[in-house]
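In this section we walk through a basic example: taking a raw amino acid sequence and producing a predicted 3D structure, encoded as C-alpha coordinates. The instruction is simple. Fold the sequence below.
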Amino acid sequence: MSAASGSLPRYILVRLLLVIPMMWVLLTLVFLLLRVAPGDPVTAAVGDKLGPEELDARRAALGLDRPMIVQYLEYLGDAARFDFGTTISDRRPVLEIIQAQGGATLTLTVGAFLFACLIGIPLGRIAGRRRDTPLDAGIRLFGVVSYAAPVFWVGLMLVGLVVKYVPGWPTFGIADPETIFYVPDKTGILLLDAIIANDRISIVDILQHHVLPCFTLGLLLSGVIIRLVRVNLIRTLGDDYVEAARARGIPERQVIRKHAFRNALVPVITVIGLQFALTLSGAILTERTFNWPGLGDTLVDYITARDYIAIQGLVTFFALAIVVVSLLVDILNALVDPRVRY
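The resulting C-alpha coordinate sequence is shown next.
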Protein backbone atom coordinates (compact mmCIF):
# COMPACT_ATOMS: atom_id res chain seq x y z
CA MET A 1 0.00 0.00 0.00
CA SER A 2 1.39 3.39 -0.93
CA ALA A 3 1.81 6.21 1.55
CA ALA A 4 -0.84 8.23 -0.20
CA SER A 5 -3.50 5.53 0.02
CA GLY A 6 -3.97 5.48 3.81
CA SER A 7 -7.51 5.87 5.13
CA LEU A 8 -8.80 9.08 6.64
CA PRO A 9 -9.99 7.43 9.93
CA ARG A 10 -6.53 5.93 10.43
CA TYR A 11 -4.90 9.30 9.79
CA ILE A 12 -7.21 11.01 12.29
CA LEU A 13 -6.55 8.29 14.89
CA VAL A 14 -2.78 8.68 14.49
CA ARG A 15 -3.04 12.46 14.81
CA LEU A 16 -5.16 12.09 17.96
CA LEU A 17 -2.60 9.72 19.49
CA LEU A 18 0.23 12.14 18.65
CA VAL A 19 -1.56 14.82 20.68
CA ILE A 20 -0.80 12.91 23.90
CA PRO A 21 3.05 13.15 23.81
CA MET A 22 2.80 16.66 22.36
CA MET A 23 0.66 17.83 25.29
CA TRP A 24 2.86 16.02 27.79
CA VAL A 25 5.95 17.87 26.53
CA LEU A 26 4.12 21.22 26.54
CA LEU A 27 2.71 20.76 30.04
CA THR A 28 6.06 19.58 31.37
CA LEU A 29 7.83 22.62 29.92
CA VAL A 30 5.25 24.99 31.43
CA PHE A 31 5.61 23.30 34.83
CA LEU A 32 9.42 23.27 34.82
CA LEU A 33 9.89 26.82 33.50
CA LEU A 34 7.70 28.26 36.24
CA ARG A 35 9.36 26.13 38.94
CA VAL A 36 12.87 27.33 38.05
CA ALA A 37 11.76 30.98 38.30
CA PRO A 38 13.44 32.65 41.31
CA GLY A 39 11.52 33.57 44.47
CA ASP A 40 8.56 32.19 46.37
CA PRO A 41 5.36 32.45 44.28
CA VAL A 42 3.03 33.17 47.21
CA THR A 43 5.27 35.90 48.62
CA ALA A 44 5.69 37.38 45.14
CA ALA A 45 1.92 37.46 44.55
CA VAL A 46 0.70 38.83 47.90
CA GLY A 47 3.82 40.73 48.99
CA ASP A 48 3.82 41.79 52.63
CA LYS A 49 0.04 41.61 53.00
CA LEU A 50 0.19 38.34 54.96
CA GLY A 51 2.18 37.19 57.94
CA PRO A 52 4.49 34.12 57.95
CA GLU A 53 1.81 31.75 59.26
CA GLU A 54 -0.72 32.93 56.71
CA LEU A 55 1.85 32.58 53.93
CA ASP A 56 2.56 28.99 55.03
CA ALA A 57 -1.16 28.25 55.12
CA ARG A 58 -1.59 29.70 51.62
CA ARG A 59 1.32 27.57 50.30
CA ALA A 60 -0.20 24.47 51.88
CA ALA A 61 -3.61 25.24 50.39
CA LEU A 62 -2.04 25.53 46.95
CA GLY A 63 -0.04 22.33 47.43
CA LEU A 64 3.27 24.16 47.07
CA ASP A 65 4.67 22.54 50.22
CA ARG A 66 4.55 19.08 48.68
CA PRO A 67 7.45 17.34 46.88
CA MET A 68 8.05 18.51 43.32
CA ILE A 69 7.14 15.17 41.76
CA VAL A 70 3.81 15.17 43.61
CA GLN A 71 3.09 18.71 42.41
CA TYR A 72 3.98 17.65 38.86
CA LEU A 73 1.67 14.62 38.86
CA GLU A 74 -1.16 16.66 40.38
CA TYR A 75 -0.64 19.36 37.76
CA LEU A 76 -0.90 16.80 34.94
CA GLY A 77 -4.00 15.26 36.50
CA ASP A 78 -5.68 18.65 36.97
CA ALA A 79 -4.84 19.69 33.39
CA ALA A 80 -6.40 16.46 32.11
CA ARG A 81 -9.62 17.46 33.92
CA PHE A 82 -9.35 21.07 32.62
CA ASP A 83 -8.75 22.25 36.18
CA PHE A 84 -6.20 25.06 35.84
CA GLY A 85 -6.04 25.94 39.53
CA THR A 86 -6.96 29.03 41.59
CA THR A 87 -5.07 32.30 41.38
CA ILE A 88 -2.96 33.33 44.34
CA SER A 89 -3.58 37.08 44.27
CA ASP A 90 -7.38 37.23 44.00
CA ARG A 91 -8.37 33.58 44.66
CA ARG A 92 -10.28 33.16 41.38
CA PRO A 93 -10.49 29.81 39.57
CA VAL A 94 -8.50 30.14 36.34
CA LEU A 95 -11.24 28.29 34.46
CA GLU A 96 -13.68 31.02 35.56
CA ILE A 97 -11.32 33.66 34.11
CA ILE A 98 -11.08 31.72 30.85
CA GLN A 99 -14.87 31.46 30.62
CA ALA A 100 -15.36 35.16 31.41
CA GLN A 101 -12.71 36.60 29.10
CA GLY A 102 -11.96 33.92 26.54
CA GLY A 103 -14.80 35.18 24.34
CA ALA A 104 -13.13 38.57 23.90
CA THR A 105 -9.87 36.95 22.82
CA LEU A 106 -11.71 34.59 20.48
CA THR A 107 -13.61 37.40 18.73
CA LEU A 108 -10.41 39.42 18.40
CA THR A 109 -8.60 36.45 16.86
CA VAL A 110 -11.41 35.54 14.48
CA GLY A 111 -11.82 39.18 13.40
CA ALA A 112 -8.07 39.52 12.84
CA PHE A 113 -8.05 36.30 10.86
CA LEU A 114 -10.84 37.55 8.58
CA PHE A 115 -9.02 40.83 7.97
CA ALA A 116 -5.79 38.93 7.27
CA CYS A 117 -7.50 36.73 4.66
CA LEU A 118 -9.31 39.70 3.08
CA ILE A 119 -6.00 41.54 2.73
CA GLY A 120 -3.54 38.70 2.18
CA ILE A 121 -5.27 36.40 -0.31
CA PRO A 122 -6.18 39.04 -2.97
CA LEU A 123 -2.80 40.76 -2.68
CA GLY A 124 -0.96 37.43 -2.86
CA ARG A 125 -2.96 36.52 -5.94
CA ILE A 126 -2.19 39.84 -7.64
CA ALA A 127 1.50 39.54 -6.79
CA GLY A 128 1.60 35.99 -8.17
CA ARG A 129 -0.06 37.01 -11.44
CA ARG A 130 2.16 40.10 -11.85
CA ARG A 131 5.39 38.37 -10.91
CA ASP A 132 8.55 40.53 -11.02
CA THR A 133 6.66 43.70 -11.84
CA PRO A 134 6.75 46.94 -9.79
CA LEU A 135 3.29 46.03 -8.45
CA ASP A 136 4.59 42.65 -7.28
CA ALA A 137 7.59 44.30 -5.62
CA GLY A 138 5.31 46.82 -3.89
CA ILE A 139 3.01 44.12 -2.53
CA ARG A 140 5.96 42.04 -1.33
CA LEU A 141 7.42 45.06 0.42
CA PHE A 142 4.05 45.73 2.04
CA GLY A 143 3.92 42.11 3.24
CA VAL A 144 7.40 42.27 4.76
CA VAL A 145 6.76 45.59 6.49
CA SER A 146 3.36 44.55 7.85
CA TYR A 147 4.83 41.35 9.28
CA ALA A 148 7.95 42.95 10.73
CA ALA A 149 6.38 46.07 12.25
CA PRO A 150 5.70 45.78 16.01
CA VAL A 151 1.97 45.29 16.52
CA PHE A 152 1.73 47.81 19.37
CA TRP A 153 3.47 50.47 17.24
CA VAL A 154 1.12 49.81 14.31
CA GLY A 155 -1.84 49.95 16.70
CA LEU A 156 -0.82 53.26 18.23
CA MET A 157 -0.17 54.79 14.79
CA LEU A 158 -3.59 53.69 13.58
CA VAL A 159 -5.22 55.06 16.72
CA GLY A 160 -3.54 58.41 16.06
CA LEU A 161 -4.75 58.45 12.46
CA VAL A 162 -8.32 57.50 13.43
CA VAL A 163 -8.47 60.13 16.18
CA LYS A 164 -7.31 62.78 13.69
CA TYR A 165 -9.31 61.85 10.59
CA VAL A 166 -12.32 59.94 11.96
CA PRO A 167 -13.28 61.77 15.16
CA GLY A 168 -15.80 59.93 17.28
CA TRP A 169 -14.76 56.46 16.11
CA PRO A 170 -14.07 54.21 19.14
CA THR A 171 -10.40 53.34 19.52
CA PHE A 172 -10.20 51.45 22.83
CA GLY A 173 -12.17 48.74 24.62
CA ILE A 174 -14.55 46.07 23.35
CA ALA A 175 -17.69 48.28 23.53
CA ASP A 176 -19.16 51.30 25.25
CA PRO A 177 -19.86 50.72 28.98
CA GLU A 178 -23.63 51.05 28.38
CA THR A 179 -23.51 48.29 25.80
CA ILE A 180 -21.56 45.97 28.10
CA PHE A 181 -24.06 46.67 30.89
CA TYR A 182 -27.27 46.21 28.91
CA VAL A 183 -26.44 43.24 26.65
CA PRO A 184 -27.42 40.06 28.57
CA ASP A 185 -24.54 37.62 28.98
CA LYS A 186 -25.56 34.27 27.48
CA THR A 187 -22.52 32.91 25.64
CA GLY A 188 -19.58 34.90 27.04
CA ILE A 189 -19.09 36.45 23.58
CA LEU A 190 -20.43 40.01 23.61
CA LEU A 191 -21.04 40.29 19.87
CA LEU A 192 -22.87 36.97 19.75
CA ASP A 193 -24.97 37.95 22.78
CA ALA A 194 -25.96 41.24 21.08
CA ILE A 195 -26.94 39.32 17.93
CA ILE A 196 -29.04 36.88 19.98
CA ALA A 197 -30.72 39.83 21.71
CA ASN A 198 -31.29 41.44 18.28
CA ASP A 199 -29.94 44.69 19.71
CA ARG A 200 -28.89 46.51 16.55
CA ILE A 201 -27.47 49.57 18.30
CA SER A 202 -25.24 47.38 20.46
CA ILE A 203 -24.18 45.30 17.44
CA VAL A 204 -23.07 48.42 15.57
CA ASP A 205 -21.24 49.73 18.63
CA ILE A 206 -19.43 46.41 19.20
CA LEU A 207 -18.46 46.07 15.53
CA GLN A 208 -17.07 49.60 15.52
CA HIS A 209 -14.92 48.78 18.53
CA HIS A 210 -13.71 45.59 16.82
CA VAL A 211 -12.47 47.22 13.61
CA LEU A 212 -9.24 48.83 14.80
CA PRO A 213 -7.79 46.03 16.98
CA CYS A 214 -8.84 43.29 14.54
CA PHE A 215 -7.38 45.20 11.59
CA THR A 216 -4.11 45.82 13.46
CA LEU A 217 -3.62 42.15 14.33
CA GLY A 218 -4.87 41.04 10.90
CA LEU A 219 -2.35 43.29 9.19
CA LEU A 220 0.45 41.43 10.96
CA LEU A 221 -0.85 38.06 9.79
CA SER A 222 -1.56 39.24 6.22
CA GLY A 223 2.16 39.48 5.44
CA VAL A 224 2.55 35.72 5.87
CA ILE A 225 -0.53 34.99 3.77
CA ILE A 226 0.61 37.28 0.93
CA ARG A 227 3.92 35.47 0.67
CA LEU A 228 2.36 31.99 0.83
CA VAL A 229 -0.33 32.67 -1.77
CA ARG A 230 2.15 34.36 -4.13
CA VAL A 231 4.75 31.58 -3.96
CA ASN A 232 2.21 28.77 -4.34
CA LEU A 233 0.39 30.49 -7.21
CA ILE A 234 3.66 31.04 -9.11
CA ARG A 235 4.58 27.39 -8.57
CA THR A 236 1.16 26.18 -9.67
CA LEU A 237 1.15 28.36 -12.78
CA GLY A 238 4.20 26.43 -13.96
CA ASP A 239 2.60 22.97 -13.58
CA ASP A 240 1.89 20.82 -16.63
CA TYR A 241 -1.87 20.76 -16.21
CA VAL A 242 -1.96 24.57 -16.22
CA GLU A 243 0.14 24.64 -19.40
CA ALA A 244 -2.23 22.08 -20.90
CA ALA A 245 -5.22 24.29 -20.05
CA ARG A 246 -3.53 27.23 -21.77
CA ALA A 247 -2.77 25.05 -24.77
CA ARG A 248 -6.47 24.26 -25.08
CA GLY A 249 -7.12 27.97 -25.54
CA ILE A 250 -8.71 28.64 -22.17
CA PRO A 251 -8.41 32.35 -21.29
CA GLU A 252 -5.65 33.17 -18.80
CA ARG A 253 -8.06 34.63 -16.25
CA GLN A 254 -10.11 31.41 -16.29
CA VAL A 255 -6.98 29.28 -16.06
CA ILE A 256 -5.92 31.11 -12.92
CA ARG A 257 -9.37 31.12 -11.34
CA LYS A 258 -10.41 27.54 -12.06
CA HIS A 259 -7.14 25.65 -12.22
CA ALA A 260 -4.20 27.41 -10.60
CA PHE A 261 -5.59 29.50 -7.74
CA ARG A 262 -7.65 26.79 -6.05
CA ASN A 263 -4.78 24.32 -6.07
CA ALA A 264 -2.39 27.02 -4.87
CA LEU A 265 -4.57 27.51 -1.78
CA VAL A 266 -4.38 23.87 -0.65
CA PRO A 267 -0.92 24.05 0.99
CA VAL A 268 -1.76 27.51 2.27
CA ILE A 269 -4.62 26.12 4.40
CA THR A 270 -2.24 24.35 6.77
CA VAL A 271 -0.01 27.34 7.34
CA ILE A 272 -2.93 29.73 7.70
CA GLY A 273 -4.47 27.42 10.28
CA LEU A 274 -1.25 27.30 12.28
CA GLN A 275 -1.00 31.07 12.03
CA PHE A 276 -4.52 31.26 13.44
CA ALA A 277 -3.38 29.26 16.45
CA LEU A 278 -0.36 31.50 16.94
CA THR A 279 -2.55 34.58 16.55
CA LEU A 280 -4.74 33.26 19.37
CA SER A 281 -1.79 33.29 21.73
CA GLY A 282 -0.17 36.33 20.12
CA ALA A 283 -3.11 38.65 20.79
CA ILE A 284 -1.50 39.72 24.05
CA LEU A 285 0.13 42.90 22.75
CA THR A 286 -2.94 43.86 20.74
CA GLU A 287 -5.21 43.45 23.75
CA ARG A 288 -2.84 45.52 25.85
CA THR A 289 -2.60 48.23 23.21
CA PHE A 290 -6.37 48.58 22.77
CA ASN A 291 -7.38 47.91 26.39
CA TRP A 292 -9.16 44.79 25.15
CA PRO A 293 -10.58 42.73 28.05
CA GLY A 294 -9.29 39.37 26.85
CA LEU A 295 -7.08 36.63 28.20
CA GLY A 296 -3.88 38.20 26.88
CA ASP A 297 -4.49 41.44 28.74
CA THR A 298 -5.38 39.45 31.87
CA LEU A 299 -2.24 37.34 31.54
CA VAL A 300 -0.07 40.47 31.49
CA ASP A 301 -1.77 41.66 34.69
CA TYR A 302 -1.05 38.36 36.42
CA ILE A 303 2.55 38.36 35.15
CA THR A 304 2.94 41.84 36.64
CA ALA A 305 1.49 40.54 39.91
CA ARG A 306 3.77 37.47 39.65
CA ASP A 307 0.77 35.22 40.22
CA TYR A 308 2.37 31.85 39.65
CA ILE A 309 -0.80 29.74 39.48
CA ALA A 310 -2.63 32.16 37.17
CA ILE A 311 0.32 32.30 34.74
CA GLN A 312 0.64 28.51 34.76
CA GLY A 313 -3.09 28.00 34.17
CA LEU A 314 -3.45 30.55 31.37
CA VAL A 315 -0.28 29.44 29.57
CA THR A 316 -1.47 25.83 29.82
CA PHE A 317 -4.82 26.84 28.32
CA PHE A 318 -3.11 28.66 25.42
CA ALA A 319 -0.93 25.58 24.79
CA LEU A 320 -4.02 23.35 24.75
CA ALA A 321 -5.80 25.71 22.36
CA ILE A 322 -2.85 25.73 19.94
CA VAL A 323 -2.64 21.93 19.94
CA VAL A 324 -6.39 21.55 19.34
CA VAL A 325 -6.38 24.09 16.48
CA SER A 326 -3.33 22.40 14.93
CA LEU A 327 -5.13 19.06 15.11
CA LEU A 328 -8.22 20.49 13.41
CA VAL A 329 -6.05 22.05 10.70
CA ASP A 330 -4.35 18.73 9.99
CA ILE A 331 -7.71 16.96 9.72
CA LEU A 332 -9.09 19.70 7.44
CA ASN A 333 -6.00 19.47 5.29
CA ALA A 334 -6.43 15.70 5.00
CA LEU A 335 -10.04 16.18 3.92
CA VAL A 336 -8.98 18.66 1.22
CA ASP A 337 -5.83 16.89 0.03
CA PRO A 338 -5.72 13.06 0.22
CA ARG A 339 -1.95 13.10 -0.41
CA VAL A 340 -1.25 14.04 3.22
CA ARG A 341 -2.74 10.78 4.59
CA TYR A 342 -0.56 7.88 5.58
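Looking at the output, two observations stand out. The radius of gyration is 24 Å. The chain has 15 helices and no strands. In the next section we compare this with other chains.
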